[in-house]
Structure formats: structure tokens, C-alpha cells
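Q: Predict the assembly, please.
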Amino acid sequence: MQLARKDLLGIESLSKKEIELILETAKTFQEISTREVKKVPTLRGKTVINLFFEDSTRTRTSFEIAGKRLSADVINISQKGSSVAKGETLLDTAKNIEAMGPDLIVCRHWAAGVPHFLASRLKASIINAGDGAHEHPTQALLDLMTIREAKGKIAGLNVSIVGDISHSRVARSNIHALNKMGARVTVAGPATMIPAEIEKMGVKVSTDLRKGIASADVIMMLRIQRERLTMSPFPTLREYSQLYGLNKEALKGAKPDVVIMHPGPVNRGVEIDPEVADGPYSLILDQVTNGVAIRMAVLYLLSGPKGKAAL
Ligand code: CP
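A: Predicted assembly structure:
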């Protein structure tokens, strides 16, 4: 089977078969990260550029590790320290980078649509590492992998995504991904943080945390995306935390085998209490570990001729 596309821009345009291919490929790459010498020659001679116009710890580092474990040459470029700071346009920056012959460009940008803009103009494969509030496809893929590892399946599960849904690319990509894989999604949070008509995406909506998580097999907590807020959607952080923060008390009404996820960065004491984030039902660090395998799979599957790679 092949991943017959040049770019990975979002989950919305992926088929279930393509998602399964990426998950299965990632599973085969997991073992490499447990070896004493964590390196295989699969992408020797390939060049990956991490082009990050927004801060990142997990995504940028795991794409770099993923590329290096596959023996690709990996170069990191961030807005700060590049000639973007001197007024160079995005397209000029991208064309100058392309002139150096990269095979894959991993792009994070604060504006939705930038990876699509680059994909339509550059020969290199573009991977969306998060564009504004639009999509974060590799986050959703690593979340699917983590859920399947913990629960043995995805289809039929109830997944509740809680918090700032309006500004979250993670929520958007996960809603697409979970729907395609047959899970049932509920979004929960203050009405001011839930987009109008989100039900059209095939989700249930709750503005009550306890009701929103009561039947959940998986709870995904989200941080408030303060960098994307133009006005405060709630009176105080304290009030938000009291109503929507996940703590042991709120979890008493949840299923006993519920698992807790969070894409990070975590704002401890705001959307999640430390005892929950670090508790036995937390998969937060498993998500980070699986991020490396998923990104290895994506780099590999997009690095074949014209973006076609045989499994
Ligand atoms: N989950 C996620 O995208 O984290 P970073 O912003 O640290 O990459």
C-alpha cells in the first residue's frame, strides 16, 4: 500500500486507509527508539527542514529526533534568528530554502493555511506541524496511536475533548481523526470557547464538565490558547479552573478505567491538576513518546518518489 500524496496538510483530507497506514508504519518504527543505537539508514541522503514560526517543544524536537533516527539531515529554522526578522516575506524565505534542495519541510505557523500556501508553490513535501487554529495532523495521529495502545481499539470509544475548542487545532484534527476511526466525540467547555454549529462536525456538545466526561473512555484536556485570544472568554482563570479544570473530584463521576490525555504544554492548576496530570490514568508522556514514531512514519511515507512510498 502507498501514501500517494506529496504533502501532509491535515487530517480532514486523509482517508481512514491512509490513517491506518501511518499508524501501522509508526508501530514498526517504535522499536528503533528502544535500541542502544537508535538509528537506521532509511532516509540517508534526505534533507528535512523544520521551519517553525511559532514556539514548540514537543513537535519540533520529535520531528528532529524522528529525522535523525532515520539518518536524514535535519536543519532547524525559527522565525527568531532568521531573515524573516529583517522583513523577508514568507514566500521569499521558502523559495530560498527550496533553492538549497530540501526533500521535506516541516512547517509550523501562527496563521492558518500557511502549509497549504507553501505546498502549492514548492517542490519539497510539506508537513503541517500546526497552522493557527486550523489543524495539527501529527498530533491527532499520535493521539490515535496512544488511544489504540491503551484501549486496544478506537472504534466505539467515547472521547471527550475539554477546554478551549474554538482556538484549538488539536481539537479540530482530533475530531476529524476520531470520527474517521469510528469513535464518538463530545466537546466540553464554556460556551464562549465552543464554536457555533460545531455539531455539524459530528460531535456532541456539553457546557458542563461533569456531564461532558461522564461516559468518556478517553478525556483529552486542552490548554487555553491565550496567544490566539482577542478578549477573555471567562471572568477569571480561577473561575475557569473551578468549573472546567480536571481534578480528582471531577473525575469521581467518570468511568473507573478512563484515561487522560493532553497535547501539552500543560498549565498545571488551570485546566488540569498535577495529581491528575501525573496520575496512573495519565497518558501524557506516552503521547510524547509516540510522537517520535508517528513523525518517523510520516517522514518515511512522504519521502518516496513524488511522495509515494511503499510500505
Ligand atoms: N503538542 C504540541 O504541539 O506541543 P508543542 O507546541 O510543544 O510542539
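The chain has eleven helices and nine strands. The beta strands are 47-52, 73-78, 104-109, 125-131, 158-162, 184-188, 203-206, 218-221, 259-261.
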